Amino acid sequence: MNVDKRLGMDINEFAWEYATKDDKNSGDLTRGRNRQMFDLGLEKVQMDNEEEVTKKLNELDTEFDQVLILEHFEEGLVVMADRLCWPLEEVRYVQLNSRNKEYVSKVSKESRQILTAWMWAD
């Protein structure tokens, strides 16, 4: 995605420059905010409405039997295989969309807190 070069700043500068502003729905930057909820059907104007987000989460909870979390993907595959009665030896995956280590930004604790608040619906 090359965000550092596109915006001319690293993730920490982005957190302080954009995610702390009051106008969180302006411009092209909304593409990165709560992207998962947007992709799952929540409209951009509903992102700051806790009631709408909760309603959408409850709806998704009834639609999905299992969700794999990227940070625990391998464990999720083990649980999925068990639920589907698949032998673990038959489960395979290919790592895609993995960043080269030279392009991974170091996120400070403060920036992580800012971004967590900014993308709270995700």
Can you tag this structure with a few keywords?
0% strand; mainly alpha
Quick structural summary:
By secondary structure, this protein is mainly alpha-helical.
Overview of this protein structure:
The protein is mostly helical. Helix content is 44%, strand content 0%. The chain has helices at residues 3-7, 11-19, 35-39, 50-63, 73-83, 109-118. The two termini are 19 Å apart.
Portion of residues in helices? 40-55%
Largest sheet: none
Mean pLDDT: 83
Unreliable stretches, pLDDT < 50, 5 or more residues? none
Rg over alpha carbons: 18 Å
Compressed to H and E, one letter per element, the order equals: HHHHHH
The chain-level structural class is: mainly alpha
Helix and strand arrangement:
Layout: H1 3-7, H2 11-19, H3 35-39, H4 50-63, H5 73-83, H6 109-118
Helix pairs in contact: 2-6
